[in-house]
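Ticket reopened. Same input as before:
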Amino acid sequence: MVEIGRGAPDPLAEALARDLDGAFESVVREYQDRLYSFALRLTGRPEDAEDVAQDSFVRAYRALQSYGAERVRSLALKAWLYRITLNVARNRFRGKKRLFVPLENWNASDDPSDRPDARAERRRERADLATLVAGLPERYKSAIVLRYVEGLRVEEVAAVLKQPLGTTKSNLHRAVNALRDAISESRRNRRQAS
Amino acid sequence: MTRQSKRIGQAFLARQLAGAGRYRAPATLLPAVLRRVGLADTYWRLSSPLGPVYVAHSKAGISMVSRASSPADFERAFARRHGRPVARERGVAPSSIAALVRRLTSPERRKLHYDLRSLSEFERAVLLKALEIPDGEVRPYGWIAREIGHPDAVRAVGTALAKNPVPLLIPCHRVVRSDGTIGRYSMGGSRAKRTLLSLEGAHPETIERLASRGIRYLGNPEGGYYCYPTCGGDIERVVREYRLPLHDEREAHSAGLAPCGSCRPPALAA
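Engineering reply: fixed in the latest deploy. New output:
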């Protein structure tokens, strides 16, 4: 099991350990876009995403209140906060099959060197990819989104998912393969259709 | 199938997925979180010697004191300064805070928590040092600069004091110019500053009378030390009893006097 709470000391965690009430606002400012984006990918609806992000920070605050200074100081904040968000969303949508829905707006950044037709093609592929990711089993989805969309390190992904590193690595590997297959399949279908 | 899938590499997937970008949290998220955990700021309207003032606070401490023309005006000023909203407090202010704002002289001042998060390390050090100036006394900007270990940063001390988010409570009005004149004040100019100092018994007119004669310290030859005129919070007594007016540290040194250990004027530089 990869423990959350190893690695280089985090200045924000240090500040929280010294003065929770004084430092907590900085934590919200630092992580609100990340947790909101992640929650939006989990839930697919801005209202739900805001609720999930809000609940996650409140839960984090209450947990920090109950931790001793040493424990707070050694927290890997980023992974810890993602994990809380994932748990909040899981509890909220338990049994509803709502986690990780495709979002329309996956084409936030286009490669400017692309020609317009290539850009359109790429945009379509991204939209397809979003749908494909959303269709993966949850254990693959969470790993893929945390690693490639949220940009966490593999160790951080393992910490968020409370998995042994090896499990995360092999889930990521399988998820990437599954996506490759699915993309090839959809490309072939499109070619046949045209 | 295999030929096709080989061309779709991990890098391609990573790039495509990262292209999803990040969404910005709505502006309502931070205030909602702070409110739910009890860290949101609220404010009271209290009476001060300078008229009504607005005093904002949260669990993190007192975050702002300001004279504003209306509650809406104060709320706007707060949001500009702190980047988060403030709401009117429904309950009444603790009597210790209300009394401190009304009377200014009180040992409560140093027991309160102040929310100085928006400030730099240096600015915080300046304000916490100003907090140490006792009731009825004043110190020059240079004193703060020296005490916090930046003797050359006199101007920066002035700038930091002008940014004091909690005037009256952190008594930046007790810091005067190095020549002894009263100097400027962010919350209503030098007239307001004189009003506050009079009320605290610092006798600003006596401070300025000495300053106009170039007198910066008063020496006590019997005790063998020299002080700022307001040392001990009773300038009239110091003027009456110390008798040896001094223009600078050199004169004090020549008279064989040492700096007072309580008000800590500068020693002659070696």
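The CA atoms of residues 80 and 119 of chain B lie 14 Å apart. The domain at 35-110 of chain B is CATH 3.30.160 (Double Stranded RNA Binding Domain). Please confirm and we'll close it.
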